[in-house]
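Troubleshooting entry. The earlier prediction with copper (II) ion gave an output that would not parse, so I re-checked the input for stray whitespace and re-submitted. Clean input:
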Amino acid sequence: MSERQGPRRQHYLNATWGLKSWLLTKDHKRIAILYLLGITVFFFIGGLFAVLIRLELATPAGDMVQPDTYNRLFTMHGVMMIFFFLIPSIPAVLGNFLIPLMIGAKDLAFPKLNLASWYIYMLGGSFALWAMFNGGVDTGWTFYTPFSTTFSNSYVIATALGIFILGFSSILTGLNFVVTIHRMRAPGLTWFRLPLFVWAQYATSLIQILGTPVLAVTILLVAAERLLHIGIFDPALGGDPVLFQHLFWFYSHPAVYIMVLPSMGVISELITAFARKRIFGYQFVAFASIAIAVLGFLVWGHHMFVSSQSVYAGVVFSFLSMFVAVPSAVKVFNWTATLYQGSISWDTPMLYALGFIGLFTIGGLTGVMLSTLGIDIHVHDTYFVVAHFHYIMVGGAIMGYLGGLHFWWPKITGRLYPVFWSKLSALMIFVGFNLTFFPQFLLGYMGMPRRYHAYPEEFQVLNVMSSAGATILGVGYLIPMIYFVWSMRYGERASSNPWGAVGLEWETTSPPPSHNFLEPPTVDHEAYDYVRRAQEQRVA
Amino acid sequence: MSVHVTPIRVYLLIFGALMVGTLLTVWAAFLQLGAFNDIVAMAIAVTKATLVVLYFMHVRHSTRLTKITVVAGFLWLAILVGLLLSDYFTRGFLAG
Ligand SMILES: [Cu+2]
Protein backbone atom coordinates (compact mmCIF):
# COMPACT_ATOMS: atom_id res chain seq x y z
CA MET A 1 0.00 0.00 0.00
CA SER A 2 2.72 2.50 -0.84
CA GLU A 3 1.27 4.86 -3.40
CA ARG A 4 3.66 7.50 -4.66
CA GLN A 5 2.38 10.86 -3.68
CA GLY A 6 3.85 13.79 -5.56
CA PRO A 7 4.78 16.72 -3.32
CA ARG A 8 2.32 18.87 -5.25
CA ARG A 9 -0.77 16.94 -4.21
CA GLN A 10 -3.30 19.22 -2.51
CA HIS A 11 -3.93 18.62 1.17
CA TYR A 12 -5.11 20.62 4.17
CA LEU A 13 -1.64 21.94 4.95
CA ASN A 14 -0.91 23.40 1.53
CA ALA A 15 -4.45 24.24 0.42
CA THR A 16 -4.01 27.88 1.41
CA TRP A 17 -1.05 29.88 2.66
CA GLY A 18 -0.37 32.70 5.08
CA LEU A 19 -0.97 33.49 8.71
CA LYS A 20 -4.52 34.66 8.07
CA SER A 21 -5.48 31.36 6.48
CA TRP A 22 -4.51 29.70 9.78
CA LEU A 23 -5.95 32.21 12.22
CA LEU A 24 -9.32 32.26 10.44
CA THR A 25 -9.44 28.59 9.51
CA LYS A 26 -12.54 26.51 10.10
CA ASP A 27 -10.79 23.24 9.24
CA HIS A 28 -10.79 20.98 12.32
CA LYS A 29 -7.36 19.66 11.33
CA ARG A 30 -5.78 23.10 11.27
CA ILE A 31 -7.49 24.04 14.54
CA ALA A 32 -6.00 20.88 16.04
CA ILE A 33 -2.57 22.15 15.02
CA LEU A 34 -3.27 25.58 16.54
CA TYR A 35 -4.13 23.81 19.77
CA LEU A 36 -1.00 21.67 19.49
CA LEU A 37 1.12 24.82 19.38
CA GLY A 38 -0.73 26.40 22.31
CA ILE A 39 -0.63 23.43 24.64
CA THR A 40 3.02 22.70 23.83
CA VAL A 41 3.93 26.20 25.03
CA PHE A 42 2.00 25.68 28.26
CA PHE A 43 3.52 22.22 28.71
CA PHE A 44 7.02 23.67 28.63
CA ILE A 45 6.12 26.54 30.96
CA GLY A 46 4.62 24.03 33.41
CA GLY A 47 7.68 21.84 32.92
CA LEU A 48 9.99 24.74 33.72
CA PHE A 49 8.29 25.13 37.11
CA ALA A 50 8.74 21.39 37.71
CA VAL A 51 12.46 21.75 37.00
CA LEU A 52 12.74 24.54 39.57
CA ILE A 53 10.82 22.48 42.15
CA ARG A 54 13.07 19.47 41.68
CA LEU A 55 16.18 21.67 41.85
CA GLU A 56 15.08 23.11 45.19
CA LEU A 57 14.30 19.63 46.53
CA ALA A 58 17.70 18.19 45.59
CA THR A 59 18.98 19.39 48.98
CA PRO A 60 17.21 19.20 52.36
CA ALA A 61 17.75 22.87 53.20
CA GLY A 62 15.42 25.39 51.59
CA ASP A 63 18.38 27.18 50.04
CA MET A 64 17.38 28.08 46.51
CA VAL A 65 14.11 29.97 46.73
CA GLN A 66 12.08 31.61 49.48
CA PRO A 67 9.22 29.56 50.95
CA ASP A 68 6.76 32.01 49.44
CA THR A 69 8.36 31.65 45.99
CA TYR A 70 8.21 27.87 46.35
CA ASN A 71 4.45 28.12 46.99
CA ARG A 72 4.12 30.01 43.72
CA LEU A 73 6.25 27.48 41.86
CA PHE A 74 4.15 24.44 42.71
CA THR A 75 0.94 26.39 42.22
CA MET A 76 1.88 27.59 38.76
CA HIS A 77 3.17 24.11 37.87
CA GLY A 78 -0.22 22.64 38.77
CA VAL A 79 -2.31 25.36 37.15
CA MET A 80 -0.37 25.28 33.88
CA MET A 81 -0.18 21.50 33.62
CA ILE A 82 -3.72 20.66 34.65
CA PHE A 83 -5.87 23.41 33.20
CA PHE A 84 -3.83 24.58 30.25
CA PHE A 85 -2.10 21.38 29.17
CA LEU A 86 -3.69 18.13 30.37
CA ILE A 87 -7.38 19.00 30.08
CA PRO A 88 -7.21 20.28 26.49
CA SER A 89 -4.35 17.99 25.38
CA ILE A 90 -5.91 14.89 23.83
CA PRO A 91 -9.44 16.21 23.18
CA ALA A 92 -8.42 19.48 21.57
CA VAL A 93 -5.50 18.14 19.54
CA LEU A 94 -6.09 14.47 18.71
CA GLY A 95 -9.87 14.57 19.23
CA ASN A 96 -10.23 17.61 17.02
CA PHE A 97 -8.08 16.12 14.32
CA LEU A 98 -9.40 12.58 14.43
CA ILE A 99 -13.09 12.50 15.32
CA PRO A 100 -14.33 13.74 11.91
CA LEU A 101 -11.80 11.48 10.14
CA MET A 102 -12.73 8.44 12.23
CA ILE A 103 -16.46 8.84 11.65
CA GLY A 104 -16.10 9.73 7.98
CA ALA A 105 -17.29 13.35 8.26
CA LYS A 106 -16.03 16.48 6.51
CA ASP A 107 -15.59 18.44 9.70
CA LEU A 108 -17.05 18.88 13.19
CA ALA A 109 -20.69 19.89 13.49
CA PHE A 110 -19.85 23.52 14.36
CA PRO A 111 -16.57 24.56 12.70
CA LYS A 112 -16.81 28.23 13.68
CA LEU A 113 -17.54 27.33 17.28
CA ASN A 114 -14.46 25.12 17.14
CA LEU A 115 -12.29 28.04 16.11
CA ALA A 116 -13.94 30.19 18.79
CA SER A 117 -13.00 27.53 21.37
CA TRP A 118 -9.35 27.94 20.44
CA TYR A 119 -9.51 31.72 20.82
CA ILE A 120 -11.25 31.35 24.19
CA TYR A 121 -8.53 28.93 25.23
CA MET A 122 -5.81 31.39 24.23
CA LEU A 123 -7.60 34.25 25.98
CA GLY A 124 -7.84 32.24 29.22
CA GLY A 125 -4.19 31.30 28.85
CA SER A 126 -3.24 34.95 28.40
CA PHE A 127 -4.94 35.88 31.67
CA ALA A 128 -3.07 33.14 33.52
CA LEU A 129 0.23 34.13 31.91
CA TRP A 130 -0.36 37.79 32.78
CA ALA A 131 -0.91 36.79 36.41
CA MET A 132 2.19 34.64 36.27
CA PHE A 133 4.46 37.39 34.98
CA ASN A 134 3.15 39.74 37.63
CA GLY A 135 4.13 37.40 40.44
CA GLY A 136 1.86 34.37 40.16
CA VAL A 137 -0.44 32.65 42.63
CA ASP A 138 0.43 30.83 45.84
CA THR A 139 -2.79 29.02 46.76
CA GLY A 140 -2.00 25.66 45.17
CA TRP A 141 -3.88 24.69 42.03
CA THR A 142 -6.84 23.82 44.27
CA PHE A 143 -7.51 27.42 45.42
CA TYR A 144 -8.68 26.25 48.85
CA THR A 145 -10.61 28.72 50.98
CA PRO A 146 -10.23 30.59 53.30
CA PHE A 147 -6.63 31.11 52.12
CA SER A 148 -7.64 31.99 48.55
CA THR A 149 -10.54 34.23 49.55
CA THR A 150 -9.21 35.99 52.63
CA PHE A 151 -5.47 35.70 53.16
CA SER A 152 -3.54 35.25 49.91
CA ASN A 153 -1.88 38.37 48.51
CA SER A 154 -1.20 36.90 45.09
CA TYR A 155 -3.02 37.08 41.77
CA VAL A 156 -5.86 34.75 42.71
CA ILE A 157 -8.62 36.43 40.75
CA ALA A 158 -6.64 36.94 37.55
CA THR A 159 -5.57 33.30 37.48
CA ALA A 160 -9.02 32.05 38.44
CA LEU A 161 -10.53 34.24 35.74
CA GLY A 162 -8.15 32.65 33.23
CA ILE A 163 -9.42 29.23 34.29
CA PHE A 164 -13.03 30.48 34.17
CA ILE A 165 -12.57 31.60 30.56
CA LEU A 166 -10.71 28.42 29.64
CA GLY A 167 -13.64 26.41 30.99
CA PHE A 168 -15.89 27.72 28.22
CA SER A 169 -13.47 26.48 25.59
CA SER A 170 -13.63 23.05 27.23
CA ILE A 171 -17.44 23.07 27.35
CA LEU A 172 -17.75 24.16 23.71
CA THR A 173 -15.31 21.50 22.53
CA GLY A 174 -17.29 18.85 24.41
CA LEU A 175 -20.56 20.12 22.95
CA ASN A 176 -19.11 20.11 19.44
CA PHE A 177 -17.93 16.51 19.82
CA VAL A 178 -21.23 15.24 21.23
CA VAL A 179 -23.27 16.75 18.40
CA THR A 180 -20.75 15.57 15.80
CA ILE A 181 -20.73 12.00 17.08
CA HIS A 182 -24.53 11.89 17.22
CA ARG A 183 -25.27 13.47 13.88
CA MET A 184 -22.38 13.09 11.44
CA ARG A 185 -21.37 9.42 11.38
CA ALA A 186 -20.89 7.91 7.92
CA PRO A 187 -23.66 5.64 6.58
CA GLY A 188 -23.32 2.21 8.20
CA LEU A 189 -21.17 3.47 11.07
CA THR A 190 -23.41 2.41 13.96
CA TRP A 191 -22.55 3.18 17.59
CA PHE A 192 -21.05 -0.25 18.11
CA ARG A 193 -18.87 0.09 15.03
CA LEU A 194 -17.24 3.29 16.27
CA PRO A 195 -13.56 3.22 17.15
CA LEU A 196 -13.16 3.14 20.93
CA PHE A 197 -11.27 6.43 20.78
CA VAL A 198 -14.56 8.03 19.72
CA TRP A 199 -16.42 6.36 22.60
CA ALA A 200 -13.80 7.62 25.03
CA GLN A 201 -14.05 11.14 23.61
CA TYR A 202 -17.83 10.98 23.85
CA ALA A 203 -17.66 10.06 27.54
CA THR A 204 -15.09 12.81 28.10
CA SER A 205 -17.32 15.35 26.40
CA LEU A 206 -20.17 14.47 28.75
CA ILE A 207 -17.91 15.23 31.73
CA GLN A 208 -16.80 18.50 30.16
CA ILE A 209 -20.39 19.60 29.60
CA LEU A 210 -21.80 18.45 32.94
CA GLY A 211 -18.87 19.26 35.23
CA THR A 212 -17.18 22.41 33.97
CA PRO A 213 -20.10 24.79 34.71
CA VAL A 214 -19.81 23.90 38.40
CA LEU A 215 -16.14 24.92 38.39
CA ALA A 216 -17.10 28.19 36.70
CA VAL A 217 -19.73 28.92 39.34
CA THR A 218 -17.27 28.07 42.13
CA ILE A 219 -14.68 30.46 40.72
CA LEU A 220 -17.30 33.21 40.52
CA LEU A 221 -18.21 32.59 44.16
CA VAL A 222 -14.55 32.90 45.21
CA ALA A 223 -14.30 36.16 43.28
CA ALA A 224 -17.57 37.40 44.81
CA GLU A 225 -16.31 36.71 48.31
CA ARG A 226 -12.81 38.11 47.69
CA LEU A 227 -14.02 41.30 46.02
CA LEU A 228 -17.45 41.95 47.51
CA HIS A 229 -17.17 40.11 50.86
CA ILE A 230 -20.33 38.13 50.20
CA GLY A 231 -20.38 35.35 52.79
CA ILE A 232 -20.20 31.97 51.10
CA PHE A 233 -17.03 30.28 52.33
CA ASP A 234 -15.99 32.53 55.25
CA PRO A 235 -17.50 31.42 58.58
CA ALA A 236 -17.26 35.00 59.88
CA LEU A 237 -19.71 35.99 57.13
CA GLY A 238 -21.91 32.94 57.66
CA GLY A 239 -20.24 30.69 55.07
CA ASP A 240 -18.44 27.34 55.18
CA PRO A 241 -14.89 26.81 53.83
CA VAL A 242 -15.54 23.11 53.27
CA LEU A 243 -18.35 24.01 50.86
CA PHE A 244 -15.62 25.23 48.52
CA GLN A 245 -13.94 21.84 48.61
CA HIS A 246 -17.23 20.13 47.76
CA LEU A 247 -17.88 22.38 44.77
CA PHE A 248 -14.27 22.34 43.59
CA TRP A 249 -13.90 18.56 43.67
CA PHE A 250 -17.29 17.98 42.07
CA TYR A 251 -15.55 19.23 38.94
CA SER A 252 -11.94 18.45 39.70
CA HIS A 253 -12.26 14.77 40.41
CA PRO A 254 -14.09 14.14 37.10
CA ALA A 255 -11.48 16.44 35.53
CA VAL A 256 -8.98 13.63 36.13
CA TYR A 257 -11.14 11.53 33.81
CA ILE A 258 -11.18 14.36 31.27
CA MET A 259 -7.42 13.80 31.22
CA VAL A 260 -7.23 10.02 31.34
CA LEU A 261 -10.33 8.78 29.44
CA PRO A 262 -9.17 10.12 26.07
CA SER A 263 -5.81 8.58 26.81
CA MET A 264 -7.52 5.22 27.37
CA GLY A 265 -9.23 5.72 24.00
CA VAL A 266 -5.84 6.19 22.35
CA ILE A 267 -4.51 3.04 24.02
CA SER A 268 -7.40 0.97 22.64
CA GLU A 269 -6.44 2.13 19.14
CA LEU A 270 -2.72 1.44 19.66
CA ILE A 271 -3.10 -2.00 21.24
CA THR A 272 -5.36 -3.25 18.45
CA ALA A 273 -3.21 -1.78 15.68
CA PHE A 274 0.04 -3.27 16.98
CA ALA A 275 -1.40 -6.61 18.08
CA ARG A 276 -3.28 -6.93 14.77
CA LYS A 277 -6.40 -8.02 16.60
CA ARG A 278 -9.92 -6.90 17.30
CA ILE A 279 -10.17 -5.62 20.85
CA PHE A 280 -11.23 -8.18 23.43
CA GLY A 281 -14.77 -7.37 24.64
CA TYR A 282 -15.50 -4.27 22.54
CA GLN A 283 -18.78 -3.39 24.25
CA PHE A 284 -17.31 -3.72 27.73
CA VAL A 285 -14.51 -1.33 26.86
CA ALA A 286 -16.98 1.11 25.31
CA PHE A 287 -19.36 1.08 28.28
CA ALA A 288 -16.46 1.19 30.73
CA SER A 289 -15.75 4.70 29.41
CA ILE A 290 -19.33 5.77 30.11
CA ALA A 291 -19.26 4.07 33.52
CA ILE A 292 -16.06 5.88 34.48
CA ALA A 293 -17.57 9.19 33.37
CA VAL A 294 -20.71 8.68 35.49
CA LEU A 295 -19.07 7.12 38.56
CA GLY A 296 -16.47 9.88 38.49
CA PHE A 297 -19.13 12.31 39.65
CA LEU A 298 -19.99 10.31 42.77
CA VAL A 299 -16.62 10.13 44.48
CA TRP A 300 -15.34 13.67 45.05
CA GLY A 301 -15.50 13.46 48.85
CA HIS A 302 -12.43 11.20 48.89
CA HIS A 303 -10.39 14.42 48.72
CA MET A 304 -11.97 15.56 51.98
CA PHE A 305 -11.51 12.69 54.43
CA VAL A 306 -9.50 14.89 56.80
CA SER A 307 -11.57 18.04 56.33
CA SER A 308 -14.57 18.51 58.60
CA GLN A 309 -16.65 16.43 56.20
CA SER A 310 -18.92 14.05 58.10
CA VAL A 311 -17.45 10.60 58.70
CA TYR A 312 -20.64 9.04 57.34
CA ALA A 313 -20.29 10.92 54.05
CA GLY A 314 -16.64 9.83 54.07
CA VAL A 315 -17.63 6.17 54.29
CA VAL A 316 -20.00 6.55 51.33
CA PHE A 317 -17.43 8.39 49.23
CA SER A 318 -14.77 5.81 50.12
CA PHE A 319 -17.03 2.97 49.03
CA LEU A 320 -18.07 4.68 45.79
CA SER A 321 -14.45 5.52 44.96
CA MET A 322 -13.52 1.86 45.01
CA PHE A 323 -16.23 1.23 42.42
CA VAL A 324 -14.30 3.26 39.84
CA ALA A 325 -11.66 0.54 39.94
CA VAL A 326 -14.13 -1.86 38.28
CA PRO A 327 -14.49 -0.23 34.84
CA SER A 328 -10.82 0.79 34.96
CA ALA A 329 -9.81 -2.81 35.57
CA VAL A 330 -12.15 -3.97 32.80
CA LYS A 331 -10.13 -1.84 30.41
CA VAL A 332 -6.74 -2.99 31.66
CA PHE A 333 -7.72 -6.67 31.52
CA ASN A 334 -9.30 -6.29 28.08
CA TRP A 335 -6.20 -4.61 26.64
CA THR A 336 -4.08 -7.38 28.09
CA ALA A 337 -6.42 -10.04 26.72
CA THR A 338 -6.19 -8.34 23.32
CA LEU A 339 -2.43 -8.85 23.38
CA TYR A 340 -2.91 -12.57 24.00
CA GLN A 341 -2.09 -14.45 20.78
CA GLY A 342 -1.84 -11.22 18.84
CA SER A 343 0.98 -10.65 16.38
CA ILE A 344 2.69 -7.90 18.30
CA SER A 345 5.06 -5.36 16.81
CA TRP A 346 7.18 -3.00 18.88
CA ASP A 347 6.81 0.28 17.07
CA THR A 348 7.17 3.49 19.09
CA PRO A 349 3.44 4.09 19.73
CA MET A 350 3.15 0.54 21.07
CA LEU A 351 5.96 1.21 23.55
CA TYR A 352 3.93 4.11 24.91
CA ALA A 353 0.80 1.94 25.04
CA LEU A 354 2.50 -0.82 27.00
CA GLY A 355 4.07 1.79 29.27
CA PHE A 356 0.64 3.27 29.86
CA ILE A 357 -0.84 -0.06 30.97
CA GLY A 358 1.87 -0.63 33.57
CA LEU A 359 1.95 2.91 34.92
CA PHE A 360 -1.82 3.36 34.93
CA THR A 361 -2.19 0.10 36.85
CA ILE A 362 0.18 1.35 39.56
CA GLY A 363 -1.58 4.72 39.63
CA GLY A 364 -4.99 3.07 39.79
CA LEU A 365 -4.14 0.57 42.51
CA THR A 366 -2.57 3.25 44.71
CA GLY A 367 -5.80 5.14 44.09
CA VAL A 368 -7.75 2.27 45.64
CA MET A 369 -5.35 2.44 48.60
CA LEU A 370 -6.01 6.16 48.96
CA SER A 371 -9.76 5.71 48.78
CA THR A 372 -9.49 3.56 51.91
CA LEU A 373 -10.29 5.85 54.83
CA GLY A 374 -7.62 4.56 57.24
CA ILE A 375 -4.75 4.67 54.74
CA ASP A 376 -5.77 8.06 53.43
CA ILE A 377 -5.69 9.61 56.87
CA HIS A 378 -2.16 8.29 57.32
CA VAL A 379 -0.76 9.52 53.99
CA HIS A 380 -2.99 12.55 53.39
CA ASP A 381 -1.06 15.54 51.99
CA THR A 382 2.14 13.51 51.69
CA TYR A 383 4.23 12.65 48.65
CA PHE A 384 2.31 9.37 48.43
CA VAL A 385 -0.61 11.35 47.03
CA VAL A 386 1.72 13.34 44.74
CA ALA A 387 3.19 10.10 43.38
CA HIS A 388 -0.27 8.55 42.91
CA PHE A 389 -1.74 11.35 40.83
CA HIS A 390 1.42 11.75 38.76
CA TYR A 391 1.18 8.05 37.86
CA ILE A 392 -2.34 8.76 36.60
CA MET A 393 -1.75 12.13 34.96
CA VAL A 394 1.78 11.70 33.61
CA GLY A 395 2.09 7.92 33.48
CA GLY A 396 -1.48 7.70 32.18
CA ALA A 397 -2.58 10.83 30.38
CA ILE A 398 0.75 12.04 28.96
CA MET A 399 1.89 8.56 27.90
CA GLY A 400 -1.37 8.20 25.96
CA TYR A 401 -1.03 11.67 24.48
CA LEU A 402 2.53 11.03 23.28
CA GLY A 403 1.65 7.53 22.09
CA GLY A 404 -1.23 8.98 20.10
CA LEU A 405 0.90 11.80 18.71
CA HIS A 406 3.48 9.25 17.52
CA PHE A 407 0.76 7.02 16.05
CA TRP A 408 -1.04 9.74 14.08
CA TRP A 409 1.92 12.03 13.35
CA PRO A 410 2.32 10.52 9.84
CA LYS A 411 -1.38 11.22 9.25
CA ILE A 412 -1.18 14.77 10.62
CA THR A 413 1.98 15.85 8.82
CA GLY A 414 2.45 13.26 6.09
CA ARG A 415 5.94 12.60 7.42
CA LEU A 416 7.69 9.85 9.38
CA TYR A 417 9.97 10.52 12.33
CA PRO A 418 13.29 8.73 13.11
CA VAL A 419 12.66 5.27 14.60
CA PHE A 420 15.78 5.10 16.75
CA TRP A 421 15.30 8.46 18.46
CA SER A 422 11.62 7.92 19.04
CA LYS A 423 12.18 4.54 20.69
CA LEU A 424 15.05 5.92 22.74
CA SER A 425 12.96 8.82 24.03
CA ALA A 426 10.00 6.53 24.82
CA LEU A 427 12.36 4.42 26.91
CA MET A 428 13.87 7.48 28.59
CA ILE A 429 10.42 8.79 29.47
CA PHE A 430 9.42 5.44 30.99
CA VAL A 431 12.62 5.07 33.02
CA GLY A 432 12.83 8.75 33.96
CA PHE A 433 9.21 8.82 35.02
CA ASN A 434 9.54 5.83 37.35
CA LEU A 435 12.78 7.13 38.82
CA THR A 436 11.09 10.48 39.49
CA PHE A 437 7.89 9.28 41.06
CA PHE A 438 8.42 5.84 42.56
CA PRO A 439 10.68 7.22 45.30
CA GLN A 440 7.88 9.67 46.11
CA PHE A 441 5.62 6.76 47.12
CA LEU A 442 8.26 5.77 49.65
CA LEU A 443 8.82 9.35 50.81
CA GLY A 444 5.11 9.84 51.34
CA TYR A 445 4.71 6.58 53.16
CA MET A 446 7.54 7.61 55.49
CA GLY A 447 5.69 10.85 56.14
CA MET A 448 7.23 13.56 53.96
CA PRO A 449 4.51 16.20 53.49
CA ARG A 450 3.92 17.80 50.11
CA ARG A 451 4.21 21.54 49.40
CA TYR A 452 7.27 22.29 51.61
CA HIS A 453 10.53 23.61 50.22
CA ALA A 454 12.71 22.02 52.94
CA TYR A 455 12.77 18.54 54.48
CA PRO A 456 14.72 16.44 57.05
CA GLU A 457 18.12 14.99 56.06
CA GLU A 458 16.97 11.37 56.03
CA PHE A 459 14.76 12.02 53.00
CA GLN A 460 17.60 13.28 50.81
CA VAL A 461 18.60 10.05 49.02
CA LEU A 462 15.12 9.44 47.69
CA ASN A 463 14.70 13.11 46.77
CA VAL A 464 17.97 13.11 44.81
CA MET A 465 16.78 9.99 42.96
CA SER A 466 13.58 11.82 42.14
CA SER A 467 15.41 14.91 40.87
CA ALA A 468 17.75 12.74 38.80
CA GLY A 469 14.76 10.95 37.29
CA ALA A 470 13.15 14.28 36.48
CA THR A 471 16.24 15.23 34.49
CA ILE A 472 16.00 12.07 32.39
CA LEU A 473 12.26 12.65 31.98
CA GLY A 474 12.86 16.24 30.86
CA VAL A 475 15.38 15.19 28.20
CA GLY A 476 12.96 12.44 27.15
CA TYR A 477 10.33 15.12 26.48
CA LEU A 478 12.72 17.42 24.60
CA ILE A 479 13.87 14.78 22.10
CA PRO A 480 10.41 14.29 20.47
CA MET A 481 10.04 18.08 20.25
CA ILE A 482 13.23 18.19 18.20
CA TYR A 483 12.57 15.26 15.86
CA PHE A 484 8.93 16.17 15.30
CA VAL A 485 9.95 19.64 14.12
CA TRP A 486 12.83 18.09 12.13
CA SER A 487 10.51 15.53 10.50
CA MET A 488 8.19 18.18 9.09
CA ARG A 489 10.94 19.19 6.68
CA TYR A 490 13.32 16.24 6.46
CA GLY A 491 11.21 13.25 7.47
CA GLU A 492 10.48 10.51 4.98
CA ARG A 493 7.07 10.86 3.33
CA ALA A 494 4.38 8.69 4.89
CA SER A 495 2.01 6.50 2.93
CA SER A 496 -1.70 6.80 3.70
CA ASN A 497 -1.48 3.87 6.15
CA PRO A 498 2.09 3.44 7.41
CA TRP A 499 1.14 1.10 10.29
CA GLY A 500 -1.27 -1.07 8.30
CA ALA A 501 -4.00 -0.12 10.77
CA VAL A 502 -7.77 -0.41 10.31
CA GLY A 503 -9.93 2.71 10.58
CA LEU A 504 -11.42 5.35 8.30
CA GLU A 505 -8.66 7.86 9.11
CA TRP A 506 -6.16 5.49 7.43
CA GLU A 507 -8.22 5.24 4.25
CA THR A 508 -7.62 8.82 3.22
CA THR A 509 -4.29 10.26 2.19
CA SER A 510 -1.57 11.53 4.55
CA PRO A 511 -2.01 14.42 5.16
CA PRO A 512 -5.74 14.34 4.37
CA PRO A 513 -7.34 16.69 1.84
CA SER A 514 -9.17 19.76 3.22
CA HIS A 515 -12.50 17.94 3.29
CA ASN A 516 -10.96 14.71 4.60
CA PHE A 517 -12.27 12.26 2.00
CA LEU A 518 -12.45 12.55 -1.76
CA GLU A 519 -15.56 10.39 -1.74
CA PRO A 520 -17.82 10.13 1.32
CA PRO A 521 -17.01 6.78 2.96
CA THR A 522 -19.51 4.11 3.96
CA VAL A 523 -18.93 1.41 6.56
CA ASP A 524 -20.07 -2.23 6.39
CA HIS A 525 -17.93 -3.93 9.04
CA GLU A 526 -16.98 -3.86 12.69
CA ALA A 527 -14.17 -1.77 14.16
CA TYR A 528 -10.69 -3.33 14.34
CA ASP A 529 -11.60 -6.02 11.82
CA TYR A 530 -8.01 -7.17 11.30
CA VAL A 531 -9.13 -10.65 10.32
CA ARG A 532 -11.03 -9.26 7.36
CA ARG A 533 -8.10 -7.02 6.48
CA ALA A 534 -5.75 -10.02 6.41
CA GLN A 535 -8.16 -11.98 4.20
CA GLU A 536 -8.44 -9.07 1.77
CA GLN A 537 -4.67 -8.83 1.56
CA ARG A 538 -4.38 -12.55 0.89
CA VAL A 539 -6.88 -12.26 -1.97
CA ALA A 540 -5.06 -9.27 -3.39
CA MET B 1 -39.19 15.70 12.94
CA SER B 2 -41.33 18.72 12.13
CA VAL B 3 -40.24 22.09 13.46
CA HIS B 4 -42.78 23.43 15.89
CA VAL B 5 -43.46 27.15 15.59
CA THR B 6 -44.65 28.71 18.82
CA PRO B 7 -47.21 31.50 18.29
CA ILE B 8 -46.22 34.91 19.67
CA ARG B 9 -49.30 34.83 21.91
CA VAL B 10 -47.75 31.95 23.89
CA TYR B 11 -44.52 33.89 24.42
CA LEU B 12 -46.47 36.88 25.68
CA LEU B 13 -48.50 34.69 28.03
CA ILE B 14 -45.36 33.12 29.48
CA PHE B 15 -43.75 36.54 29.80
CA GLY B 16 -46.83 37.70 31.72
CA ALA B 17 -46.67 34.63 33.97
CA LEU B 18 -43.01 35.34 34.74
CA MET B 19 -43.81 38.94 35.66
CA VAL B 20 -46.64 37.81 37.93
CA GLY B 21 -44.21 35.36 39.53
CA THR B 22 -41.74 38.16 40.21
CA LEU B 23 -44.43 40.30 41.85
CA LEU B 24 -45.57 37.30 43.91
CA THR B 25 -42.01 36.74 45.13
CA VAL B 26 -41.71 40.34 46.30
CA TRP B 27 -45.13 40.24 47.96
CA ALA B 28 -44.40 36.90 49.70
CA ALA B 29 -41.12 38.23 51.06
CA PHE B 30 -43.04 40.69 53.25
CA LEU B 31 -45.23 38.00 54.83
CA GLN B 32 -44.14 36.49 58.13
CA LEU B 33 -44.11 32.76 57.29
CA GLY B 34 -41.06 31.66 59.25
CA ALA B 35 -39.29 28.76 57.55
CA PHE B 36 -41.92 28.80 54.83
CA ASN B 37 -40.61 32.08 53.40
CA ASP B 38 -37.72 30.20 51.79
CA ILE B 39 -39.94 27.39 50.56
CA VAL B 40 -42.44 29.75 48.95
CA ALA B 41 -39.69 31.76 47.27
CA MET B 42 -38.02 28.61 45.94
CA ALA B 43 -41.32 27.19 44.70
CA ILE B 44 -42.07 30.32 42.71
CA ALA B 45 -38.51 30.44 41.33
CA VAL B 46 -38.59 26.79 40.24
CA THR B 47 -41.94 27.29 38.52
CA LYS B 48 -40.57 30.29 36.64
CA ALA B 49 -37.42 28.43 35.62
CA THR B 50 -39.53 25.53 34.37
CA LEU B 51 -41.57 27.88 32.18
CA VAL B 52 -38.39 29.39 30.72
CA VAL B 53 -36.91 25.97 29.96
CA LEU B 54 -40.10 24.58 28.43
CA TYR B 55 -41.15 27.55 26.32
CA PHE B 56 -38.36 30.10 25.86
CA MET B 57 -35.78 27.35 25.42
CA HIS B 58 -38.21 25.32 23.24
CA VAL B 59 -37.68 22.10 25.18
CA ARG B 60 -41.38 21.26 25.24
CA HIS B 61 -41.47 20.64 21.49
CA SER B 62 -37.94 19.28 21.06
CA THR B 63 -36.69 15.79 20.26
CA ARG B 64 -36.38 13.18 22.97
CA LEU B 65 -32.58 13.46 22.77
CA THR B 66 -32.83 17.14 23.74
CA LYS B 67 -35.16 16.27 26.60
CA ILE B 68 -32.74 13.63 27.90
CA THR B 69 -29.97 16.22 27.74
CA VAL B 70 -32.00 18.67 29.81
CA VAL B 71 -32.97 15.99 32.33
CA ALA B 72 -29.31 14.96 32.62
CA GLY B 73 -28.39 18.51 33.56
CA PHE B 74 -30.90 18.53 36.40
CA LEU B 75 -29.96 14.99 37.44
CA TRP B 76 -26.34 16.09 37.79
CA LEU B 77 -27.41 19.09 39.83
CA ALA B 78 -29.33 16.66 42.04
CA ILE B 79 -26.19 14.53 42.46
CA LEU B 80 -24.24 17.63 43.48
CA VAL B 81 -26.83 18.83 45.97
CA GLY B 82 -27.73 15.36 47.24
CA LEU B 83 -24.24 14.12 48.06
CA LEU B 84 -23.32 17.56 49.38
CA LEU B 85 -26.22 17.48 51.82
CA SER B 86 -25.26 13.94 52.83
CA ASP B 87 -22.26 15.62 54.43
CA TYR B 88 -24.08 18.50 56.10
CA PHE B 89 -26.96 16.39 57.43
CA THR B 90 -24.75 13.74 59.03
CA ARG B 91 -22.03 15.93 60.55
CA GLY B 92 -23.87 16.12 63.87
CA PHE B 93 -24.33 12.36 64.22
CA LEU B 94 -21.06 11.86 66.07
CA ALA B 95 -21.41 14.87 68.35
CA GLY B 96 -23.01 14.26 71.70
CU1 LIG C 1 -10.41 12.32 43.15
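This one parsed fine. The radius of gyration of chain B is 18 Å.
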